[in-house]
Design brief:
Helix content is about 25%, strand content about 25%. By secondary structure, it is of the alpha/beta class. It binds zinc ion.
C-alpha cells in the first residue's frame, strides 16, 4: 500500500506540472544537505556530486560533468572549508562522474570498486593521455603516473571513517554491475544512489551492459530503499527524498513490462525501439536514451549477455557546424557536405584547445572517431582525438 501512495505522489508531481520542465537549473547549485554535507547539483540534469567535510579532510563523491564543473565544485568546497580533499569516491565509472578525480588525486586517493580498478588497468593509451591532459596544470605531475597509481579499490562493503564521519560504500553484487557504488551516510540518512538513482532524466542503459542491466539496477534500488534514506542524491536530476528510489523502481518495472508486451505480440526489435515511449514519464529529458533502454531490456528478457560491439577507427576533417552541451555533441561538416555527429567524451585527446567546452561553430577540425559495427549510435560517434586547426 505504501508503494501505491508514493507512486501516486510521484505521478502527481508530473501531472501537476512540477516536473514538466523536468530539469535542474541552468546553473550548477551547491546545496547544504546536512551539517558538513553538500550536494553539487549539475546544471540541466548533468551529473551530481557530493562533498562531505570532516576535520581530517574532505570526501568527494563523484567529480562533476565536465572539467569546468570539477573546478567549480572545488571552489564551492573551498568556500566552506580549508580542509583538503583527501578522498574521491567514484560511484560509476563514466567520465561525467569520474573524469575530474585527477584534479585532486594524487595526493587524494580515488576510491573505486575493484571491477572499476580492473577497467582502469585496461585503459587504452589515448585514454591515459586524455587523463594526463584533462587539467593542464596537472599534466606535469601525472607524467610518470598511471590512473591505477591513484586508486584504492574496495569490494562489496567498505566503511570510511574520517574526522568523526561514517561513510558507507555499498556495492550490490550482480554479474553485470560494472562497479557502481552507492554512498550512504547512516547518521544523516543521506544516500548518493549511484547509477540506479535517476530523476527527470531517462537513464543511460545500454545493450552492451556498460551501465549494468535493468534487473541489476532494480536489485540495487531495493537494497538502497531498505536503508530508508531521508535524502537521495541521484546520479542525475534534482535531489529528492527516499521516494525517488521507488519512482525509479516503478520506471524500470514499467519499462520492462512495455518491452515484454511488445515482444509477446511479436513486434521486431527495430519497431520496439521506435514504439518504446515511457509516456508516464513523458516530462523526463534525454528521450534519445529510450531506444537503447528498449534494446537492453530486449536482451535481458531473452537471457542474453551483453552485446559485443566491434568498432572501426575513422578519420575526418571539416568544419564544426554545431556544438552543444559544453561541446559534448559536435556536428562536423566534411568536404562533401556530409554532416558527422561526434560524441566528445572525457577520453577524447584534444590538440589546439584545452577541453571540449572551447569547441565552437566554424572551427576547422580533424578527428579520429569510432564507428560501431551494425548500429547507428544515437548520441554520435565516440571521438578519440579532436584537433582544432582554426
Ligand atoms: Zn552520468
Amino acid at each position: 500500500m505504501k508503494r501505491m501512495v508514493t507512486m501516486c505522489a510521484f505521478v502527481g508531481s508530473i501531472a501537476g506540472g512540477m516536473s514538466v520542465s523536468a530539469i535542474t537549473g541552468d546553473q550548477p547549485e551547491f546545496r547544504k544537505l546536512a551539517e558538513d554535507v553538500y550536494a553539487y547539483i549539475g546544471k540541466l540534469n548533468d551529473s551530481n556530486a557530493m562533498a562531505i567535510v570532516t576535520t581530517e579532510g574532505v570526501v568527494l563523491v563523484d567529480t562533476g560533468n565536465n572539467t569546468t564543473d570539477t573546478r567549480e565544485l572545488l571552489k564551492h568546497v573551498q568556500s566552506v572549508t580549508k580542509q583538503p580533499v583527501r578522498y574521491v569516491v567514484i560511484t560509476q565509472n563514466h567520465n561525467d562522474h569520474s573524469g575530474g578525480a585527477v584534479l585532486f588525486s594524487p595526493p587524494a586517493k580515488t576510491i573505486v570498486h575493484e571491477r572499476v580498478a580492473k577497467q582502469w588497468a585496461g585503459l587504452k593509451p589515448h585514454q591515459i593521455t586524455a587523463w594526463r591532459r584533462r587539467f593542464p596544470e596537472r599534466t606535469a605531475a601525472l607524467e610518470r603516473l598511471n590512473p591505477t597509481d591513484t586508486i584504492q579499490s574496495v569490494s562489496d562493503r567498505f566503511t570510511l571513517r574520517l574526522g568523526g564521519k561514517e561513510i558507507q560504500l555499498i556495492y550490490v553484487a550482480d554479474e553485470y554491475n560494472p562497479g557502481d557504488i552507492a554512498v550512504w551516510l547512516p547518521k544523516e540518512r543521506i544516500l548518493h544512489a549511484s547509477m540506479a538513482g535517476y530523476k527527470d532524466r531517462h537513464p543511460d542503459i545500454r545493450p552492451d551492459y556498460s551501465h549494468g542491466t535493468t534487473e541489476g539496477l532494480l536489485k540495487q534500488l531495493k537494497t538502497y530503499l531498505a536503508l530508508s534514506p531521508a535524502t537521495v542524491v541521484p546520479a542525475h536530476g534534482p535531489v529528492s527524498g527516499g521516494w525517488l528510489l521507488e519512482g525509479m523502481i516503478e520506471y524500470l518495472l514499467l519499462a520492462r513490462d512495455q518491452v515484454q508486451e511488445m515482444r509477446k505480440k511479436g513486434v521486431p526489435l527495430a519497431d520496439i525501439e521506435k514504439q518504446f515511449q515511457m509516456k508516464a514519464f513523458g516530462g523526463w529529458d534525454r528521450s534519445e536514451h529510450l531506444p537503447w533502454i528498449a534494446a537492453t531490456i530486449h536482451r535481458e528478457l531473452q537471457g542474453l549477455g551483453p552485446q559485443i560491439i566491434t568498432v572501426a577507427e575513422r578519420r575526418l576533417s571539416g568544419v564544426v557546424s554545431n556544438a552543444v552541451q559544453d561541446g559534448r555533441f559536435v556536428t562536423v561538416t566534411v568536404g562533401d557536405g556530409t554532416q558527422v555527429r561526434l560524441r566528445v567524451t572525457g577520453d577524447t585527446v584534444f590538440e589546439g584547445i584545452g577541453d571540449r567546452t572551447q569547441i565552437r561553430s566554424g572551427m576547422k577540425v580533424s578527428a579520429v572517431y569510432e564507428v560501431p559495427d551494425g548500429i547507428a549510435p544515437a548520441l554520435g560517434f565516440d571521438t578519440l582525438e579532436f584537433t582544432v586547426s582554426r
